[in-house]
Amino acid sequence: FDVSSAPVLNNLGKLRGIVLVFHDITELKKLEQIRKDFVANVSHELKTPVTSLKGFAETLLDGAADQPDIRDKFLTIMWKESERLQLLIQDLLDLSKAEQGYALELQEVSLATIVEEVLLILEPKAEEKGIALKFAVEGATTVEGDGQRLKQVFINLINNALNYTPAGGRVLIRLKESAEKVTFSVSDTGIGIKKEEISRIFERFYRVDKGRSRNSGGTGLGLAIVKHLVEAHHGRIHVKSKVGEGSTFTLVFRKKFTNN
Ligand code: ADP
């Protein structure tokens, strides 16, 4: 608490009492801490690939460039690290835009068409990992929404399902129409998420397993972006998961975005 006080005087200027005002600053302190943690996380995440780029460049300049096999190996690593850096910067920009509540470009969009587009991008990855990727649609799936943003949401969720499911697993995407709503879900037979972690995975940079997430190319920002975008669409998101069995991420969208 932060306390401020002021005397209360009568019309002769004599003290009658004191007013104490208590400001609850716990919420402010918490927000300030979240902001500080975020800056520390961003700095750390940026520093790691830059340090590695610098190290490899120095070694190349010191003579390693004369040995073609070593040079190629180092350049490949540097290329991968730059990609990571680029992805991280893109995710940070996307998150910042989403947090500022930028204007959505609303149109009637078919969620089924968007999912088909996403599958074109992600099917090769599923095949490479030996994961059976299936898609089932029930009813009409037209909603009012921003197609580009919704595509980003689906890419993130389906990509996660593929990342956190071992080879030989299954990923099932469903779209289902009901009275006023369209429900999207993606279920995987992957590693699952502990109950106490589920509420945290939407936090910026929160990862259950940092190493695993990095190896799969994750920035730890995907679900934070997803949550903002879904909420911007007045949609809802639920997660059901069991460790060792798999996870289901469900999104519920209203067909009409503006009127209700
Ligand atoms: P990342 O880039 O690390 O995947 P996300 O924000 O997309 O970042 O997800 C945050 C964390 O939530 C992940 O690091 C992972 O631990 C967990 N997670 C997300 N999706 C799944 C899933 N389908 N199965 C298991 N864990 C998941």
From TrEMBL:
Gene Ontology molecular function: ATP binding; phosphoprotein phosphatase activity; phosphorelay sensor kinase activity
Occurrences of domain Histidine kinase (ranges): 41-257
Entry GO CC: membrane raft; plasma membrane
GO biological process: cellular response to phosphate starvation; regulation of DNA-templated transcription
UniProt subcellular location: Cell membrane; Membrane raft
Main location: membrane
Keyword terms, alphabetized: ATP-binding, Cell membrane, Kinase, Membrane, Nucleotide-binding, Phosphoprotein, Transferase, Transmembrane, Transmembrane helix, Two-component regulatory system
Statement: the UniProt record of this protein carries the keyword Cell membrane: yes
Keyword Nucleotide-binding attached: yes
Protein name: histidine kinase
Species: Fictibacillus macauensis ZFHKF-1
Residues of the full protein shown: 316 to 575 of 575
